[in-house]
Amino acid sequence: MDSISLIRTPIEAELRDFKALFDSSLSSSNALLDSVVSHIRQRNGKMMRPVLVLLVARLYGAICPSTLHAAVSLELLHTASLVHDDVVDESTERRGQLSVNAIFNNKVAVLTGDYLLATSLVHAELTNSHRIIQLVSTLGQDLADGELLQLSNVSNHSFSEEVYFDVIRKKTAALFAACTKAAAFSVGVGEGEAELARLLGEYIGICFQIKDDIFDYFDNREIGKPTGNDMLEGKLTLPALYVLNTTKNDEAQELAIKVKEGTATPDEIARLISFIKENGGIEYAVQTMNVYKQKAFDLLASLPESDICVALRAYLDYVVDREK
């Protein structure tokens, strides 16, 4: 059995219920909105976050309507943030597909993102859980805060791993943590179990983002990110930060400052990427990612063994081993 089948098999029926609810949440009589939403739905992908919600809910109880509405709410909020991020970053591609702002325009993209955000809150309310409503609202704050923190970090000349982890905790890990905690809340668990679920999601999210950052050092058109795309946007991620801080190489640091200032040429970015790869940046990022993976495994080891634990370990393996 392949990893995706292993992950999805315990929740196959509930995943179909989620898809039906998600699709119905996006139906609209507005022709323009319907066109944009149809475009967005083409990149549904493997639905990693909804799958995580369903698995963690099953870990603690039976999936119920509250679980499905929580999964829809969080996926809509995530989708809204991606649409808005593409406008902020002036991106024309998202995972190998043209972005909403590239096909339509910034106005349509922003308004569509707003619509998705509002619909997310509707489904949060439909969970009938004050704790989930609060969780979704706080997540919206964290995602925006993470974007602003990342933007402010571009302009400073420090190479801080601490700031990097602050950004990814708010931009990526917070979303995965909200998925697992909302799942736990949806089946009525207590605060202790919900905190374990939150930590599990945070560790998964950190692994997910580090893996995404590693992709940026290798040309892969399938994910819509040519080599050095993050650096073109002024972003220095974990492999670069490690090498810059350990080698203290003057030329590399000068190139890194130019990256942050947005003045580095493609040739200079290529030179910096080669230097990072030659000095152990990728290996360090992989090692760090595996530390967080093991932390997640340790949390799962504290729970009774079940097919859901097997599926969650397969989920973690997939996050770390995926090729796009």
UniProtKB/TrEMBL annotation:
Transmembrane spans: 51-72
This protein's record includes keyword Magnesium: yes
GO terms classed as biological process: isoprenoid biosynthetic process
Keywords, in A-Z order: Magnesium, Membrane, Metal-binding, Transferase, Transmembrane, Transmembrane helix
Cofactor: Mg(2+)
PROSITE patterns: POLYPRENYL_SYNTHASE_1, POLYPRENYL_SYNTHASE_2
UniProt cross-references to Pfam families, sorted A to Z: polyprenyl_synt
Domain of life: Bacteria
Keyword Metal-binding tagged: yes
InterPro entries: Isoprenoid_synthase_dom_sf, Polyprenyl_synt, Polyprenyl_synt_CS
Recorded GO MF terms: metal ion binding; prenyltransferase activity
Assigned protein family: Belongs to the FPP/GGPP synthase family.
Name under which the protein is recorded: Octaprenyl-diphosphate synthase
